[in-house]
Amino acid sequence: ARQHGGRFILRIEDTDQKRSSVEATMGIARDLWWLGLDWDEGPKLPRPGESAMGDKGEFGPYFQSQRLTTYKEYLDKLVREDKAYRAFDTPEQLDAQRKAARAENRNYRYDRTAALAIPHQERERRAAAGEPHVIRFKLPDEPIVIRDAILGEATIPAEQLDDFVICKADGFPTYHFAVVVDDELMRVTHVIRAQEHFMNTARHLRLQEALGFRRPVYAHLPLIFNPDGSKMSKRDKDKALRAAVKQNKDPAASAFLQNFWNHDAVTAWLADKDSQLDVDTASTIADVLGVPLPEINVDDFRRSGYLPEVLCNYLALLGWNPGGDVEKFGRDFLVERFSFDRVMKGPAKFDRAKLLAFNHDAIQALSTEEFVGLFRAHCIEFHPEFIEKLTPEHFDLLAAANHKRSKTLDDQVRSSRFFIDGDESIEYDAADKNLRKVMCGGEPTGRAHLEALLPVLEGVSDWSVAGLEAALGAFVQQHAGGNLGKVAQPLRIAVTGTTISPAIHETLVILGKTSTINRMRRCITALAGA
RNA sequence: GACCCCAUCGUCUAGCCAGGUCCAGGACACCAGGUUUUCAUCCUGGUAACACGGGUUCAAAUCCCGUUGGGGUCGCCA
């Protein structure tokens, strides 16, 4: 849109006092910034480490909660013109009516006759006296034609809608009313939103007509689904956690959770299936249970080490494509080529495997220097212990060694922990199948190789990749018939406790000579009886 | 249930609007083989779809109708 002279407006729709918060707003800003999407108009929000207040653009304020007098002006106008009316039903009454309708298997529709039976004067008097009430829009009894840039034209019969609330009892406008007023006042020309808003568009159109406003272009984007066909939503994390708690069989985790159980928050959460745990508690429990929570929010993907341009690319591809076989593209291409007529009409399932494959390709396309820089930034934010415990030189070596093995910025972090753990914390489980195979199988055994190798490595003075290649190479020629694996695997187990690590020479260099020798000795001792 | 929308490989999709070049192309996933000091890669090959039924037409994945299936909405949430 910007290319065609459009402007991107950020408006904070915080008309629900219960749900809005500064954190939520800053979360939105952080996500947009990370994705590389800054807004032309909207609130000036502080970037990390900055302080900023005020507005960009001339049609602010951009927090709806700060525009209440504006809404009131238009609300009064509609009431005055008899296009809207005050209604005094309580939420309980309405709830009962809906339930009754459901029980009788009939569609519920707000019946305005009771509210309108009260004389206008009296309604105003009761309102002035402070009696709680809402304002409802008097929906005209005519079908509504929606013209959508993606879906085409659809006619909604008037009886599908009713006199919806446009001002809540707390004096805040509803979303429907606020967006219609703001879209007009902020000169909005294009409303591009999810398909779940399609019916709302009918309401908004009616409101625009009643208020004499201009009509923006509407485009309703397809929804994103989980692989199982359910709608992808924040609730999925909660669902995953509940399922994990329910299925947990690990006694240690159970014990931990027993203690946790008494925490009020967790108890309340378990009691109420519709409630959601706060992020910290949820991730703690997920950690204990060893279950990964699905990435749902933009920030989840950032934490997981996806590249913002890859996420943009993949998301754009869900429901849109440039035609032909082109799949990989950057922001500029998208800006230039995007058009509504190539947007899909049906929902798309979110395929994490494909996103991961895209991210893998993008990370492999990075230069080592670029990767090291991104990985460093990622660790500074999410894994500071790697920064603290490694020298800058060794950190960079680690990053470089992991580059080719990384699909995300995060996926080698867990398997790299042995680099920063103390030598004493490496455990050798003599009963482990893999370990036995490597250490005890073959002739000579891996353990024998390890013991023979110890003095050789102790004698290495040039502890570099080249130096180790020379030393190990010679050893392998002499003792293992040139088969590096026969020696590298026992050594890998000795220094990592596992069979997984970067290339062995790099691993040893990053670890350092002292730790390498220490760990070899500990391993030999631990396996002495095996 | 009512109303609205949608329908190509397991998934995202190209092709459809201007019917033949499509016994349907790509990507991811999957399977098989190969490379590799572990893990991860990498290379080669393969399986796999026009939902169904009627029309229209010389000809339909492409146009029309119906059926089935899927989705959205039906809040003092946004």
What does this structure look like?
There is one protein chain. The protein has helices at 22-35, 68-80, 91-103, 113-117, 120-128, 175-185, 198-211, 235-247, 251-261, 264-271, 279-289, 298-303, 308-317, 331-337, 352-365, 368-382, 384-389, 392-403, 433-440, 446-458, 465-479, 484-496, 504-511, 513-526, and strands at 42-43, 55-56, 84-87, 134-137, 144-148, 152-156, 165-167, 190-194, 217-221, 224-225, 348-349. The chain has a 3-stranded antiparallel β-sheet. Strands 1-2 form a two-stranded antiparallel ribbon. Helix 18 (392-403) runs antiparallel to helix 23. The chain is mainly α and 530 residues long. Helices cover 50% and strands 7% of the residues. The relative contact order is 0.06. The structure holds one RNA strand of 78 nucleotides.
Task: Quickly describe the structure.
By secondary structure, this protein is mostly helical.
Provide the structure class: mainly alpha
Major beta-sheet overview? 3 strands, antiparallel
Helical proportion, percent range: 40-55%
Find the count of extended strands (DSSP E, 2+ residues).
11
Strand order in space, largest sheet: 3-4-7
Number of helices: 24
What would you report as the Rg, rounded to the nearest angstrom? 31 Å
Low-confidence stretches: none
> How much is the average pLDDT?
91
How far the N terminus sits from the C terminus, by CA atoms, comes to 69 Å
Share in β-strands: 5-15%
Q: Give the overall shape, derived from the CA principal axes.
A: elongated
